[in-house]
Amino acid sequence: MRHRSARITGGALAVVIAAMLTGCFANPLDAFVENVTEETSKNAAEEMIEGLTGGEAGIEFGELPEGFPAEVTLVSDNVLQSVTVAEGTMVIVSDPRSMEELLAQVKKDFSGWEEIVASDMGVIVSAMYKKDDSLSVAVGIMEGGDGEDNRVTYTVITPEAE
């Protein structure tokens, strides 16, 4: 159990670092420079994740990764980015609704799932849900700052990784 927790924690850390490195930044230069910068960040993050996890990684901006489970309902279609590794997939969406509204939506979306654990630290709310021993999803809601939308992160852990 401890080994699995360490592996999941290590994988989650790699995904969070990659998310920070691949944030969508506006570039005042032309589209060419923007694409090169985004692609360079994406490649660097993929290499870092692959080095940390020992496996392939895929990073996408603005879209769900191929094969994302249909059972996982997202609070928003505004996908910022997704990261896929052997252990699972993380998808980050943004939504202008309040933390309370998003939390209520997540609870509704996962009402048929078993809630394993939940935490409310004010600006960050998280929960882990499990469905029929076949799918586990960690959901984190983070308050946006300086007029930014709130962000909701879904980390889907593949059954083989558990």
Question: Keywords, please?
Answer:
162 residues; seven-stranded antiparallel sheet
Could you characterize what this model shows?
With 162 residues, this protein is of the alpha+beta class. It has helices at residues 2-21, 31-53, 99-109, and strands spanning 58-61, 79-85, 88-95, 114-120, 124-131, 135-142, 150-157. The chain is built from 3 helices and 7 strands, in the order ααβββαββββ. The chain has a 7-stranded antiparallel β-sheet, sandwiched between helices. It is globular.
Q: How would the blueprint of this fold be written?
A:
Blueprint: H1 2-21, H2 31-53, E1 58-61, E2 79-85, E3 88-95, H3 99-109, E4 114-120, E5 124-131, E6 135-142, E7 150-157
Helix pairs in contact: 1-2
Please, what is the average pLDDT?
75
Shape: globular
Largest sheet: 7 strands, antiparallel
Number of helices: 3
Question: What is the alpha-carbon Rg in Å?
Answer: 16 Å
Beta-strand percentage range = 25-35%
Quick rundown:
This protein has 3 helices and 7 strands; from the N terminus they run ααβββαββββ. It has helices at residues 2-21, 31-53, 99-109; strands at residues 58-61, 79-85, 88-95, 114-120, 124-131, 135-142, 150-157.
